[in-house]
Amino acid sequence: MTYWNWNLLFQLTLLYQVISDFCTDKGDFSPEKISAVDMGYVFENLVRRFSESYNEEAGAHFTSRDIIYLMSDLLVAGDESAFTGDGISKTVYDMTMGTSQMLTCMEERLKQMDADADVTVFGQEFNPFTFGIAKADMLIRGGDPNNMQFGDTLSDDKFSGYKFDYIISNPPFGIPWKREEKEVTAEFKKGTAGRFAPGLPAKGDGQLLFMLNGLAKLKDDGQMAIIQNGSSLFNGDAGSGPSEIRRYLIENDWLDAIVQLPNNAFYNTSIATYIWIVVKNKPATHQGKVQLIDASACCSARRKNIGSKNVDITKACRDLIIEAYGAYADDTYNGVDENDNAIVVKSKVMDSIELGYNKIVVETPQLDDNGNVVTKNGKPVADATKRDTENVPLAEDIDAYFEREVIPYNPQAWIDKAKTKVGYEIPFTRAFYEYKQIEPSDVIAARIEEHEKSLMAKLHDLFGGE
After folding, report:
1. Cβ(235)–Cβ(356) below 8 Å
2. Nearest to 217 by CA among 172, 154, 125
3. Which residues of the chain have pLDDT under 70?
4. Concatenated DSSP letters for 19-50?
5. Which of 70, 119, 264, 283 is the most exposed place for a label (fewest CB within 10 A)?
6. Torsions phi, psi of 154, nearest 5?
7. Percent of the chain whose pLDDT exceeds 70
8. What are 93-115's pLDDT values in tens digits?
9. 3-state DSSP: the chain helix, strand, coil percent, rounded to 5?
10. Mapped to the 3 state alphabet, what secondary structure does 54-93 carry?
């Protein structure tokens, strides 16, 4: 038998085995046996395994439906004018769409609110395998396949000049943007004519470039839900690219809320992740403020892990998070999940100015052998070895801070005001820090003494002796 005949026989045997398996009771996927939600998880698991088979980059994370549903609900909850009349028409964009599941879920959510709503989705993806699935899915659902575009969003933007009502996306994080460096840098030099004018992040992580792409594509009343890891909160000193991007977002008063997700919510990463909610036209009660929502303890344990994912954000969890977002206040929200297990969400609302600071350079004069200040042209000469910096809260007067915090310890110091830079960071962990009272020293000492007595008694029993 020739090679081709053997190969055909092998394929037919394999096909027969697959068909046979699906004809058994275990392969019954009828609606009576498998719910729509469970079928979604089956599909996701297949796509996840498929992604792993072609060595998807470590920072590219397939997003499960429970997270997408939360993102969709957050977007709708933050849109006061979403469904207030007839003839509703909305556009949705995902800049890193993968297999387009985010777009599908967002469309489903909007149709649930208004079955007659006209929802048009757009997406771009640079992986040819997942792009093929997305385009096929669009054809199956009767949409316009031309709205699904292939290419690298950062270096080959297929939607230049487009503006969207909603953006929902989970861009890769921790992945270098070296391959897009030439095009991104050229666009950065265009200033406000390009997408990246506020600044460029470090070349080791391009996630904030996707943030800027989204900001450039939001309508004036548009909203974005985008996932980031923890580095976007604080990486980069004052004046750096990441800090300037945060500054651009916050000083324009577009950052509405950040939600910390539970760890182990994704299939292939267990690190802390966050949903940033960006609203171009905030309601009056939110203006000048940013809400931080700690939902890290708002999840339900899975009976069986799927990769790294061992928790789900169930409907009860989503509802509690949405309640906290809707209240937009400092508070703690308690509830129970579908299995009567306790869940909790903590909320902290900060004035936007609290997220900013002035980084000042403090100089100390050089002293000669006699201990006198060295001067040049009548001005003291700075001693570079003693140069220091201070971060002064943006809401505080720099000179008053300097007089209180520096002069008492360094009377000859001064501020080089030409070097002052404005920085922004989001102190998520600090905002929710709760001080726990340390035990009194005599209690600790007594416990140590008891341990010593117990240890000596055991040694005595083991070795004998007096």
Report:
1. no
2. 154
3. 1-10, 35-41, 43-61, 80-87, 464-466
4. HHHHTSGGG---TTTS-HHHHHHHHHHHHHHH
5. 283
6. -75, -40
7. 89
8. 999 998 898 999 899 888 888 88
9. 40, 25, 35
10. CCCCCCCCCCCHHHHHHHHHHHHHCCCCCCCCCCCEEEEE
Residues shown for the chain: 466
Residues near 140 by beta carbon (within 8 Å), at least 6 away in sequence: none
Kindly report the backbone phi and psi dihedral angles of residue 206, in degrees, each rounded to the nearest multiple of 5, phi listed first: -100, 10
Identify whether the C-beta of residue 281 lies closer than 8 Å to the C-beta of residue 221: yes
- 223-255 CB burial, b ≥16 within 10 A, e <16: bbbbbbbbbbbbbbebebbbbbbbbbbbbebbb
Q: How far is CA 18 from CA 15, 21, 27, 464, in A?
A: 5, 5, 10, 70
Strand order in the sheet with 255-260: 148-150, 118-125, 89-94, 164-169, 218-229, 273-279, 255-260, 289-294, 342-351, 331-336
Distance between CA atoms of residues 296 and 13, nearest Å: 48
Give yes or no for a contact between 278 and 249, defined as CB atoms under 8 angstroms apart.
Answer: yes
Alpha carbons 134 and 124: distance in angstroms, whole number: 9
The answer to whether 236 and 243 have CB atoms below 8 angstroms apart is yes
Q: What's residue 58's pLDDT?
A: 42
User: From the centroid of its chain, how far is CA 336?
Assistant: 25
What's the count of helices (H) and strands (E) in the chain, helices before strands? 13, 18
CA 346 to each of CA 60, 168, 265: distance values in angstroms, whole numbers, following the listed order: 28, 24, 18
Q: What is the DSSP string of 182-199?
A: HHHHHHHTTGGGSS-TT-
pTM of the model: 0.85
